Amino acid sequence: MEPTEKGSIGAEGQHARPGASPNRAMNTFSEADEEKLSGVRRMKLTATGLLLLVALVYVLAKWASHEGAGGWAGYVAAAAEAGMVGAMADWFAVTALFRHPLGLPIPHTAIIPTKKDQLGVSLGEFVGENFLSEDVVRQRLRSVGIGSRLGIWLADPEHADRVTAELSAALRGALTVLRDSDVQAVVGEAITRRAEAQEIAPGIGKMLERVVADGGHRRAVDLIVGRAHDWLVLHSDSVMDAVQGGAPGWTPKFVDKRVGERVYKELLRFCSEMRDMPSHPARGALDRFLADFASALQSDTDTRARVERLKGEVLGRGEVQDLIASAWTAVRSMIVSAAEDERSELRLRVRASLLSLGSRMAADPKLQAKVDGWVEGAAVYVVTTYRQEITSLITDTVAGWDAEHTTKKIEAHIGRDLQFIRINGTVVGSLVGLLIYTVTRALGA
């Protein structure tokens, strides 16, 4: 019969590290694991059966030798004896990996359950030193050629469509998760803080100076003068009534009427001339005023201070803050709508950009090298900065495994091969024993 393999597991293997979750994958036994464990049991029976066979052969050979069967019995007995020794030695070695042989607390046995945490630490250090080093990461990524492969992949229209769809879904998800009130508060605060911190008068002055120098304001003047002329034509009675209403009460009515008509005609003539004459003196005066105002915005302290006060008053108004806050709602709605529409300009432009980028990356070695460098740099930063966290994940995970379940699971996966060691030990031991007995007899003869 096979020696008993049940034994107590060491104190180190009985309890997981504090804080480790007991519900780990290694703490459960699946149907596949049970099937593998059944295979291990069958191989154990085979190895044990071979041990019993050589033991029976040894007994029979010894009996035959005692009965005077001849010299051959000694050779068979020596081979069988060595086979038993080899089988028992390998049984002890294999069993010592998983439990205490015969239940005896022999030192350096039950290695897996008692040294589980130490094995986890060693495994984490091994991974950190041999897989998470900068040279290994760079060499591996460089051999992959990410830039070239990514370019070829993106150049495929089907793949570009897929990336565009995924980006659109991610964008919609992100905008849906964000609360409008939070984003509006952040946007409003950012715009207000930036506007308050930045003096706007010099910038406005420079912009106005360029506009005046290029004559860009003249179209605005044409529009305003033209609309003023049209308004006067349509509202002549209103203008004359306004002039008459402002006259002194002691003037005769017909005088007020004549004055109103005169004022209206002068206003209409002024607007007509200014509209039709590019060289009208009023236009020149307006050009000089705007030029002087642009210069004052940039250099005059009082003008700049008044502009800043006006800016503060405008930003402080509730209507302006509401307008800034509502801008996010409009932008979000526009982006979500564009992301959902497959034929929207946004998605079409993203798709075209991805195809163009893919074609360039597939054909341009310099761009490929840049992409490879970016990927390598990012990967190296991650492994060098978070190496301890990555290796501790391995260590903590192993520490959280239940020692008994871990031992059974490992035995289920590699135990069958280990039982072959017992079989090989029996066979090899027998051959070596036979060889030693033969050489001994030869030298003794």
UniProtKB/TrEMBL annotation:
Classification lineage: Bacteria, Bacillati, Actinomycetota, Actinomycetes, Kitasatosporales
Protein name (database record): Membrane protein
Annotated spans, Disordered: 1-26
Gene Ontology CC: plasma membrane
Alphabetized Pfam families for the sequence: DUF445 (PF04286)
Domain of life: Bacteria
Protein source organism: Streptomyces resistomycificus
